[in-house]
Amino acid sequence: MTARQPDYTWTDLTYLLHKNQMSWAYYVAEGTLPDCEDDQMLCAPKPQKAGTPNIMNPLPWFVTVHQDMQLGNIQTLDHFYAAAKDGTLPAVSWIVPNGKTSEHPPALISDGQAYVTGLTNSIMQGPAWDSTAIFLAWDDWGGFYDHVVPPKVDENGYGLRVPSLVISPYAKKGYIDHQTLSFDAYLKFIEDDFLGGQRLDPKTDGRPDPRPSVRENIPQLGDLVNDFDFNQPPRPPMILPLNPEPGPASIPGM
Length: 254
Fold this sequence. Notes:
The chain is of the alpha/beta class. Helix content is about 20%, strand content about 10%. It has helices spanning about 15-20, 65, 75-85, 110-125, 185-195; strands spanning about 25-30, 30, 45-50, 75, 90-95, 135, 165. It is globular, with a radius of gyration of 19 Å. The chain starts with 12 loop residues before the first helix and ends in a 60-residue tail after the last helix.
């Protein structure tokens, strides 16, 4: 008996991007899956390919992507490097790692750091750096608990806190954002920047679905635009080595 493949009928952001003729791409680092399915702690490695839907590459399961004929926007990672070099990156890009570069156990953190550095360097060395914002996000928090109770913003609420970095020629230097943020803030930034503030809202996007709220409009959610200073001259690229030499050891208080 063959298991039935998921069929995601709710609206995703690519629907609004396509509707507004904004380009997008989802770049997949092929190899093995970074994580196990069904919240398993250990599992046999499974292959990850751009054309094969999985937990890290869910868009091929979305009805909107099929109906909009956008499956070709889900591409292997070499297409990202080529577009970064040529200055032909789409308006919105997502990049996902594979098992080796994900920093997920048992992968090496150093491999993940080199992977992310290479991605960032390729953009900095390309012609689109002066108009780019990079949001580097993790979906794990590096510990066993969070002592701060997540806000209850709707029936789903927020989850445990995870780290994130903003990299851009217009990012505020040394700035720490103390707003309440979630992954919804990335959607909000994209919608405000490219879609005139349109929202994934069943009342306006023409595709009814059962989402409990328009998460981008929740009052507690901060605005990532606060992380930028668009009045400053664009900061020049800072190309980093992929595998830097370890620095000297330091002893606290010495």
